[in-house]
Amino acid sequence: MPTPPPTGPLVTRDTLAADLRSLGVRPGETLLAHSSLSALGWVNGGPVAVVQGLLDALGPDGTLVVPTQSGDLSDPALWSRPPVPEEWWSTIRATMPVYDPRVTPSRGVGVIPETVRTWPGALRSAHPETSFAALGPRAAAVVDGYAPDCRLGERSPLARLEAGGARVLLLGAGYDSCTSFHLAEYRIPSPVVEVGRPSPTGWRTVREVSITSELFEELGADFERDRPVVRGTVGAAGARLFPVADAVAYAERWLALHRPRDLYVDAAPGGSGTRRRP
Questions:
Q1: Spacing of C-alpha 209 from chain mean position
Q2: Which residue in 31, 34, 24 sits closest to 63, CA to CA?
Q3: pTM across the whole model
Q4: Distance of alpha carbon 212 from alpha carbon 269, whole angstroms
Q5: Count of Cβ atoms closer than 10 Å to residue 201 Cβ
Q6: How confident is the model at residue 147 (pLDDT cuts 50, 70, 90)?
Q7: In angstroms, rounded to a whole number, what is the distance separating the alpha carbons of residues 181 and 175?
Q8: 141: CB partners within 8 A, 6+ apart
């Protein structure tokens, strides 16, 4: 049977920029975008048009930031989607490519962040698992610096975005994608775990705060109920817009009350003893 035509809506660079402006995206601001291309509808030009539309709405003085995580540069003992045989682990650790911000692809964050990562002039932070890429005049201020034992904490781009008054855009993405909530995990009692990853000098293990997105959807629903969150539609996608600082402050209180964590039980970066591939 022939493939049915798309039902739309038909989305273009210009309609995206117009929808973003109507939502409240301001020229000159710094925006941390979490996105889903498929949620937008039929986009003429695909992820390139989406990035162009975002940059048009932000204008030449605005800065676009996206997560460009590469969680596969991690310990194969923790992988579960899919797992690999235990007899492979030592070889994988010994031969895993070292993180290179110029060439290491993002994983699990969608095609729009990967398009930003490869955009002319894009800068990328140096953490091998939880990097961010940025375009615009404040890109260097967001991504510069390196803290191998601080994935999403005080020495990460998230803290700089918070201090700089950036806002979060959830573009067809849910609160489970909201990395800003993770910054709160560094400010409340949280388990510390050993995290292994490749380095130029061989396999390296560092001690890190255990992070997990468990209950982030519930956290986001309460945040949206209690705090001013701009809601609207961009293309066919539901969209939300709110300050990074508001999300972090609310998550600090909410997580401490609704998701207290045993400081001695967690055994993996996924949290609560969870073993999963990022």
A1: 17
A2: 31
A3: 0.91
A4: 7
A5: 7
A6: confident
A7: 9
A8: 160, 164
